[in-house]
Design a protein that fits this description.
This protein is α/β, with parallel strands linked by helices and 326 residues long. It has three domains: 92 residues, Winged helix-like DNA-binding domain superfamily/Winged helix DNA-binding domain (Arc Repressor Mutant, subunit A, Orthogonal Bundle); 117 residues, D-Maltodextrin-Binding Protein, domain 2; 94 residues, Periplasmic binding protein-like II (D-Maltodextrin-Binding Protein, domain 2), CATH 3.40.190. The chain is built from ten helices and 14 strands. The strands form four sheets. A five-stranded mixed β-sheet has the order 6-5-7-14-8, with helices on both faces. A five-stranded mixed β-sheet has the order 11-10-12-9-13, with helices on one face.
Length: 326
């Protein structure tokens, strides 16, 4: 990232955008340790940068307490201005840095939205043969997606939440002046090999799963995932055969070998497994928690031609892939 320098309120003291980002992260996380993890930085670096910043501006931004870092009254005011500057500079950088006028450049972040890869691939297929493009599709947690879109680090985000939390999340999105709409609403399904004995069911009984191997993403905790995404009464003690896979692309390959395995997934777009007819998605009526995939974007970016084009394509893709009858 380019290092920018700023002069806040005509002060002679100069500070870097990185210092401002550190302040924002510490305020959000409540400690330097958590901020360092979030920013993938060494803790001493952030501590030193904060001390230098407070010395430069002659103001204590945080109180150091046994319960963590707490903003001082002056720090509260500084944080508001820091957020405005960081957001503005990220937006400026996104619009003008290292982007050729004839290159399609878009950064999309998603939280466990398997079909997004298919959507992006099909969208790219609509380009002309001589079009240039530089597209990033990144999978990260929902809160990080919201932060990155809000701070213009990403153009478009897709977050996945229980529908029961929709109002809670939309309040947060509104406070950050983000636009949003529900892309898809569903209950989870089971993905498995056609040779798996469970494939004989149209609606797989939940009690049958205890005899089979569950494949799940390595960062997910079974008890948390099950109770928030499948059924509030989900009993993780029944899962005695579980493989945690950190590379999502490896799951299908593993399932082709472990034919007694299964994994919980969102509905798959039609034709997702045409090249691999041995994989099938099945209903399980025990999964009764409604899940939403929500598209988020900065309201100021909604009318930008590239972003509006992709958002429109995404709506059509989801409608055709999940909502239209065969």
């Amino acid at each position: 990232m380019i290092q920018y320098e700023y002069n806040i309120e005509s002060e002679a003291r100069i500070m870097k955008i990185q210092q401002l980002e550190y302040v924002i992260a510490i305020a959000q996380e409540g400690s330097i340790t958590s901020a360092a993890k979030k920013l993938y930085q060494a803790q001493p670096n952030i501590s030193i940068a904060l001390k230098e910043l407070e010395s430069e501006i002659g103001t204590q931004v945080f109180w150091r307490t046994p319960n963590g870092m707490v903003l001082t009254p002056e720090g509260e005011n500084f944080l508001l201005k820091a957020k405005e500057i960081v957001e503005g500079m990220h937006s400026l950088e996104a619009d003008y840095t290292n982007k050729n006028a004839d290159t399609v450049a878009l950064r999309i972040e998603a939280n466990i939205s398997t079909y997004m890869a298919a959507a992006v691939a099909l969208w790219v297929k609509t380009f002309n043969p001589d079009d240039k493009f530089n597209i990033h599709l990144i999978e990260i947690p929902s809160n990080k997606v919201i932060d990155d879109v809000s701070n213009s680090r990403s153009d478009i985000g897709i977050i996945r939440i229980p529908s029961s939390q929709f109002e809670l999340y939309t309040e947060q999105l509104k406070s950050r002046k983000l636009g949003y709409y529900t892309l898809n609403e569903f209950t989870m399904k089971l993905l498995l090999h056609t040779d798996n004995p469970l494939a004989k069911y149209d609606d797989i009984p939940i009690e049958e799963l205890k005899n089979y191997t569950q494949i799940m993403h390595g960062d997910d905790e079974i008890n948390v995932f099950g109770k928030t995404s499948i059924n509030a009464d989900y009993d993780d003690s029944a899962n005695t055969r579980t493989i945690h896979v950190y590379d999502r692309g490896s799951k299908i390959a593993m399932m082709n070998i472990l034919k007694d395995a299964y994994m919980w997934v969102s509905p798959m777009p039609r034709g997702a497994f045409e090249e691999n007819a041995k994989i099938v998605a099945k209903d399980c009526s025990y999964a009764n928690i409604q899940i939403r995939d929500i598209v988020i974007f900065k309201k100021s970016n909604e009318t930008k031609p590239l972003i509006s084009r992709f958002l429109e394509f995404l709506k059509v893709f989801v409608d055709r892939s999940f909502n239209e009858k065969n």
